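Hi all, posting the design record for the shared folder.

TITLE: backbone redesign
STEP: 1 of 1
STRUCTURE INPUT:
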């Protein structure tokens, strides 16, 4: 619903120490090439832990979706268009951008929600290049799925396919929101019959993963290898680490078949490799994967259209912005899927 644009808005302020207060900010006016969005939803992300505990100069939020309410000169997006915001303000002209690798832009101008104001406010000013339009009947909450959940994980799968075209089984380490998203995208992109073993230590998350078609393994109670055996597997073709934990990465690597690939998505600890047996002999690969390319969005939007209800199961909590403090406490408590703030 379009409201008249006010001059000021009340937005969350991340004070640090796990405290979120509210303060007043001017509603920005779009300049050349810019759009003003009225936010409808913004999902919480594990990468906001630093902002929650150390504070933030800008309004956080990098998984936002809303509706264009004002468009600056030189733009072609109509007022009233719903869409989602790509995190990285890529230049569009460097060697990376020219090839479509917009997540590896060499002259990145900003990261929305990290060094310029993001999506937890009522309005967000963005450059038009980072705005991705969605269908009119798609809710802002549904549109947020295109970002870290579908975008980041879809990219990880496409990275794996660069070296492994015939993925017939997979392990996902970590059943937090990214891990659940990885499970879902593996099913959506590679088929619902694909066996996907998913590990965690939090029973709530493992139960949710199981309801989404994953084969849960609680690594607090046994090893990944034992878990695989329970499901009749001895090895898998691809492993995706969302946990960032060295021990999980190592276990995932050890579970790989010949020509297997380990994709590292979760930031965190290291991985000790013994090059000959780990990599050279079995021709395995270890690949990093960071966010995603803007040009992956149209294909992911098609997946979202086809599997809306299934993908929406990843979102377990939706709270109004007035309850953002409680939302973060719940989220970092660990017993949630994706948590979304709705305006
Ligand atoms: Zn994120
Ligand atoms: Zn660039």
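Okay, here is what came back for every position:
SEQUENCE:
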């Amino acid at each position: 619903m379009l409201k008249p644009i006010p001059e000021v808005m009340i937005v969350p302020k991340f004070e640090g120490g796990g405290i979120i207060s509210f303060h007043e900010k001017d509603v920005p006016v779009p300049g050349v090439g810019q759009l003003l969005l009225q936010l409808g939803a913004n999902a919480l992300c594990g990468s906001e832990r630093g902002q929650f505990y150390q504070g933030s100069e800008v309004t956080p939020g990098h998984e936002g979706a809303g509706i264009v309410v004002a468009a600056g000169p030189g733009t072609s997006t109509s007022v009233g268009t719903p869409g989602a915001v790509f995190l990285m303000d890529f230049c569009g002209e460097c060697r990376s951008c020219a090839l479509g690798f917009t997540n590896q832009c060499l002259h990145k101008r900003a990261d929305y929600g990290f060094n310029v104001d993001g999506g937890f406010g009522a309005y967000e000013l963005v450059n038009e290049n980072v705005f991705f339009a969605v269908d009119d009947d798609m809710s802002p909450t549904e549109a947020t799925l295109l970002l870290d959940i579908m975008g980041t994980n879809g990219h990880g799968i496409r990275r794996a396919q660069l070296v492994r075209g015939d993925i017939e089984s997979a392990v996902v380490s970590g059943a937090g929101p990214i891990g659940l998203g990885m499970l879902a995208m593996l099913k959506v992109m590679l088929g619902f019959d694909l066996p996907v073993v998913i590990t965690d230590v939090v029973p709530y998350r493992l139960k949710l993963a199981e309801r989404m078609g994953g084969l849960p393994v609680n690594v607090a109670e046994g090893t990944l290898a034992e878990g695989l055996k329970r499901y009749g597997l001895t090895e898998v073709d691809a492993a995706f680490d969302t946990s960032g934990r060295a021990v999980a990465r190592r276990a995932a690597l050890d579970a790989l078949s010949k020509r297997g690939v380990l994709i590292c998505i979760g930031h965190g600890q290291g991985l000790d490799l013994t090059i000959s047996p780990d990599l050279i002999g079995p021709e395995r690969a270890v690949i990093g994967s960071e966010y995603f390319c803007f040009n992956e969005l149209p294909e992911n939007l098609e997946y979202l259209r086809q599997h809306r209800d299934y993908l929406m199961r990843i979102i377990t909590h939706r709270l109004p912005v007035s309850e953002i403090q409680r939302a973060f406490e719940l989220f970092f408590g660990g017993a949630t899927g994706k948590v979304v703030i709705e305006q």
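COMMENT: The mean pLDDT is 97.
Let me know if anyone wants the other runs.
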